[in-house]
Specification:
By secondary structure, this protein is of the alpha/beta class. It is built from seven helices and seven strands. Helix 2 crosses helix 4.
Amino acid sequence: MFSRVTKAIKAFTERRFVIIFSENEKEADLAIPAQEVTAEAVIFLAKVASGLLCLALPRSRLKELEIDSLPSRYRATDTPFYSPVDAKEVENSGISAQDRAFTIKKVIDPNTRPEDLARPGHVMLLGAHPDGVIGRDGHTEAVVTLCQLAGVYPGGLLCELVSDSGDMMNAKELKALAKRFKIPIITVGALAEFTRYFLRQKKGQDLTIKQNSSRL
């Protein structure tokens, strides 16, 4: 199990895609680090996964940018949505792959100020629990934790994997996709267990990566 997680960490280190399956939701997301994101990566996510493309970040970063969380009403799940944004410099509507990649780079740039981002926009944002996947076993925390373990900026893109039938991809479809594009598959539970093991090995060393440590 841990060998799969280490392969996923290596993939994130190399800015490659990983499939993350949630045992609780019975759904999988396609994910990639936000650091050095390209328009091509955004296009791949949109075409291959076809779910809702979001940028997951630590809540501390969203607080720095003065981005508000969105109220949750009548929902069975507690998906931590925040106000979507666009970089103010985008020349078009903000929805193109180029515009979204530009906005994502702007959001994770430590020099970006709250007034540099227009709201609402076309980049959906998610706020991860401060303790990562240990604090909440969701896709949002999984992608941030995986970035931390890989030593890259603690934020990543994720998009639900939807099949051509319109349903969420099943195990057979996920395995076929992973084989076709050579993408590692991990589960949220396996990542949480690996992270606990890692923390024990490091004697409780803090995994948190300060925002200013990753300059693009």
